[in-house]
Amino acid sequence: MLAQRVTQAAAEIKGLIGESVRASTEGSALASVAGTTIERLSEAVTRVDTTFHNLSADTNEHADGLLAMRDTLFALRETTRENLQLATETFAIADVLAAQARDLDGVLAQFRLSGMSESASVPASPSIARSPAFAATAAASAPNPPAAQGAVEFF
Q1: Could you tell me if 129 and 135 are in contact, meaning their C-beta atoms sit under 8 angstroms apart?
Q2: What is the 3-state composition of the chain as percent helix, strand, coil, each rounded to the nearest 5?
Q3: How far is CA 19 from the centre of its chain?
């Protein structure tokens, strides 16, 4: 009976050892799978981290670009404002010059040059009188009559 009991105990121990080896093998396989899964998870976290760093860098680059664009638009607005002011001043100066030209035309219409007839001394149109071709034609075709009474002579 003791021999039977020893044999039975040895069989139980053998079964327990076999079960322990099997559980250990399964545990080792599960640990290997868990290690592989953790490694893949770590790689995925690294990729996500890299993506976020790239996104952050891109966002900073876009923000810098937007700031530069804003500064350029402010400078363009200031330049446009200055150009508008200059255009307004130029328009006002042009109006003053046009008025002065009209006044000068009126004053010059009162004078006749020596040797010019009365019809040649006052041109029909100020724009024609300003042209060099008219001045040359008028000077060449004007007769040399005596100076008109009351006219101021300059030349």
Answers
A1: yes
A2: 80, 0, 20
A3: 76
Pair 129, 123: CB distance under 8 Å? yes
The answer for 151, left when phi > 0, alpha when psi is -120 to 50, beta otherwise, is beta
Is 139 a residue whose pLDDT tops 60?
no
Residue position matching structure tokens 């076999």:
18
The torsion defined by the Cα of 60, 61, 67 and 71, in degrees rounded to 10, comes to 160
Model pTM score:
0.43
**For the chain, what is the radius of gyration of the CA atoms?**
54
Contact of 115 with 142, CB cutoff 8 Å: yes
Q: Is the pLDDT of residue 141 over 60?
A: no
Query: Tokens representing 76?
Result: 């363009």
**136 vs 88, residue with greater confidence:** 88
What is the rounded distance in angstroms from the CA atom of residue 50 to the CA atom of residue 46?
6
Structure tokens at 17: 């050892």
Instruction: Indicate the pLDDT class of residue 59, thresholds 50, 70 and 90.
Output: very high
